[in-house]
Amino acid sequence: MQLLNNLSIKQKLIGIIMLTSIISLSVASVGFISINIISSKRSIIRKISTLASTIGINSKAAIIFKDQKSAAETLSALSSEPDIIYACISDINGNLFAEYVSNNQGKGKTDSEQYLKFNKFLKLDSKWSNYMGASYMFHKKHLYMFVSIIFEEEYQGGIYLCTNLETLYSSILWNIIFCTGILSACAVLAYFISIKLQKTISDPVLELSQIMGRVSSDKDYSVRVEPRYPDELGILFEGFNNMLAQIQERDNALLFTHYAVDHMGDMAFWIDSEELIIYVNNAACISLGYTSEELVSKSASIVNPNSNPDAWRAHWNDLTDKQAVTMETILITKTGDTFPVETNFNYVRFKGKEYCCAFLRDVTNRKRIEAQLQQAQKMEAIGTLVGGVAHDLNNILGGLVGYPELLLIDMPPESPMVEPLVQILKSGEKAAAIVQDLLTLARRGVAVEEVVNLNDIINEYLKAPEYEKMIQYHSDVQFKLTIEPDLLNIRGSFFHITKV
């Protein structure tokens, strides 16, 4: 069995089939040969015992009448049996009475020696077997048999036969050779059949092995193996396909998660307990000006100017206690520029190792917007204050503008007070326009819109005291007026345009 462990599945299948076939055929051959040997021995025992009994019956008269010649003639009939090499008849006293020696008997042995050999064997009672009143014993290549001659229930003598078993053993040998030949032929046939049949198992397994190798090398979990048969191999293939489907699903989910984190707008870092960066996404690389290879396996202090071993250890202890920490810090780029970030630190423990998963967001724009919001809130407060003041001034200016108008209604045009009152009215209106500006600032817009002509506004300005005063202050400056007579009207605020 240990030898099979180191073989391929193809060789194992062939070996198992061959071993099973050879063992089965060997057992069958051994059984056949054993039965043949037993049957052949029984057949020759039966034949020799029958022959001995016949000779015994024919020799009774010769022994009773002491006729050795007749007994010898009876024994000479054994010449027709070439396998019987020696036979003899003993009298009632155990003495040699008559004998027969075949021409196939080996030379150099006297008749008395053969007889003494029989007597020696007869004394070995434990080695003799009985068959139909005959005693027999197999010794080396011979069958020894003794049959008693009984007359009127009295022992008269015995017949001894020695049979050569070379013919029997030769037949058995040929049977063994025949069975060995059949066994060898069957083994060869089983070998070729096993080569053909093992493909039904080894080919699908080999295909599965090749697909497994391709999946392992290419990391392509979309590959599937087609089940061929609805057997255990089919179940194995279905299980393999289900496993690949689960791996593919998990791999796609992992790739999606990795892609999402890698392409998210916020910066992402994975940092171990020793402050070494083990992962950084694209947003962090773009914001900091580094490549992923330049940051991975480096200390996080490379991008955090405020970090040092003591500060990191204190931060790590705080993170392990709270599991999640949110704070603002400063990052430094590869070029030395700094920018504020909001950082969410998360403590993660995976397979016995501790990590810090950090998500960072650039808050530069938020800081600027917050500053603008604060400025807007300040301006809102100022506008509210200005609106209140302007409202009070507007109440005061109501009389300053209204009373000159009332006086001008009842005053004749030639009165010398008309011009001063007109100037007071215009000044009041300008003051009202200034108040209107304050109200516009407080309300975030222009309060009054009307149809005006720019030529009229310019001509009106040229008559105003402000223009005359400006000419006096800038006597070295000459003003030239060129206006378009057919200029179209516009919509706007007369007083605001005058300010421009």
Mean pLDDT: 79
The portion of residues assigned to helices is 55-70%
Q: What would you say the CATH architecture of the largest domain is?
A: 2-Layer Sandwich
CATH homology-level superfamily of the largest domain: PAS domain
Assign the structural class, choosing from mainly alpha, mainly beta, alpha/beta, alpha+beta, or little secondary structure.
alpha+beta
Number of DSSP-assigned strands = 13
Q: What keywords describe this structure?
A:
4 domains; five-stranded antiparallel sheet; Beta-Lactamase; alpha+beta; 15 helices
Structural summary, described in words:
- By secondary structure, the protein is an alpha+beta fold.
- It has 4 domains: 7-173, PAS domain (Beta-Lactamase); 214-258, no CATH class; 266-362, Beta-Lactamase (2-Layer Sandwich), CATH 3.30.450.20; 374-499, no CATH class.
- The chain is 57% helix and 18% strand.
- The chain is built from 15 helices and 13 strands.
- It has helices at 2-5, 9-64, 68-76, 111-122, 166-197, 199-218, 232-262, 282-288, 292-295, 309-322, 364-410, 418-443, 454-462, 465-473, 494-499; strands at residues 84-90, 96-101, 129-131, 134-139, 142-151, 154-164, 267-272, 277-280, 324-332, 338-350, 353-362, 450-452, 490-492.
- It has a 6-stranded antiparallel β-sheet, with helices on both faces. The protein has a 5-stranded antiparallel β-sheet with strand order 8-7-11-10-9. It has a two-stranded antiparallel sheet with strand order 12-13.
- α2 (9-64) packs antiparallel against α3 (68-76), α2 (9-64) runs antiparallel to α5 (166-197) and α11 runs antiparallel to α12.
- The longest helix is centred in the first third of the chain and has 56 residues, at 9-64.
- The two termini are 109 Å apart.
- Mean pLDDT is 79; it is low at 106-111.
